[in-house]
Design goal:
Length: about 325
């Protein structure tokens, strides 16, 4: 087993993650829930679709988390002329030598921020999402593994409707979470403005080898009872039986519940998953996996509204 630098088995994992959260908040004001969801996704190897208007700190949050985890970070701006090779890389001819050279794209990193993914054309989206699913990229007939850990943070603007290519449902399902970054409160905005006058470098709490060991620890040590597993599956299946929902969540959502809930439990220092873990994760796991009938959307009913009703309608197991 790889030696864990700075991380001992007998140390309190909950305290370590509290310290990680503290370091992130040296730079980032608010956004507690989004930061938690990002960390959960990273420690269980999932990807996140971030929805927010411009200027709400997506790049700052992503870059700060990467620094606290000593992970390589790259950003790609989605545009209508963005090609798959601009993300994945390709084989290029060296005009001086006449030889072909391999050039790896920005996807070869630990944390990739794909800004405004819905501005990229469908072929580019498909190439990116295939790499996300397989964790490999084929260049020049050779398959190259992506670095570990590896996650994509893809953003989209909920307001912009012109010049965008909406992600198909099958591609949306590849994301573990859909997280929503909201406008800051007045107090938070004052703190954000003040923070621009000074900068405090966050400390590194974990590094990539440690993250991989923690991922294995989560997989091997955190238990999920049959009653909690059944509870999460009931929630997913309920999305297929609501009159408001045209298309419900598939089995990948049930798998997402187990991966994310085990990680959440571990981050809180537990070796077991509770029904409350499942409830806490229901909205980010399901909101991008259900499609409402247009008449309900026109009445400003949201997926989050329906998810809340589903949670209220299903009895949770005893803790």
């Amino acid at each position: 087993m790889v030696e864990i630098k700075g991380l001992e088995r007998d140390r309190d994992i909950k305290q370590l993650f509290a310290q990680l959260n503290h370091e992130v908040h040296k730079v980032v004001v608010g956004n507690d829930k989004v930061i938690e969801e990002m960390l959960i996704a990273l420690f269980c190897g999932g990807h996140i679709l971030l929805e927010s208007v411009p200027g709400t700190g997506k790049t700052l949050i992503s870059r700060t988390i990467s620094r606290t985890l000593d992970c390589e970070f790259k950003r790609v701006q989605g545009t209508p002329d963005l090609q798959a090779k601009d993300i994945l890389g390709g084989i290029y001819l060296d005009e001086q030598t006449g030889n072909q050279t391999l050039q790896k794209g920005p996807i070869f990193t630990n944390i990739l921020l794909m800004d405004e993914i819905n501005r990229s054309p469908p072929k580019t989206q498909a190439a990116l999402l295939e790499a996300m699913e397989e964790k490999v990229v084929s260049l020049g007939g050779i398959t190259h593994k992506l670095p570990k850990p590896f996650i994509v943070l893809a953003t989209q603007n909920p307001i912009e409707q012109e010049g965008v290519f909406s992600l198909p449902e099958a591609q949306l399902d590849r994301f573990l979470f859909k997280s929503v970054i909201e406008y800051p409160s007045q107090e938070e905005e004052i703190m954000i403005t003040k923070s621009k006058l000074s900068y405090e470098e966050p400390a590194v709490i974990f590094n990539p080898p440690e993250i991989l060991i923690i991922q294995r620890e989560i997989e091997e040590t955190v238990e999920v009872s049959d009653s909690v597993l059944e509870y999460s599956v009931k929630i997913v299946q309920a999305t297929r039986n609501r009159r408001e929902i045209h298309s419900g969540a598939g089995p990948r959502a049930s798998i997402a519940f187990m991966l994310a809930a085990k990680t959440l439990a571990f981050l809180e220092g537990r070796d077991y998953v509770t029904a409350n873990d499942v409830r806490r994760l229901a909205h980010p796991i399901l909101r991008h996996r259900i499609l409402l009938y247009s008449e309900y959307s026109s009445m400003r009913v949201t997926p989050d509204d329906i998810i809340t009703k589903i949670l209220d309608s299903i009895e949770s197991p005893m803790e």
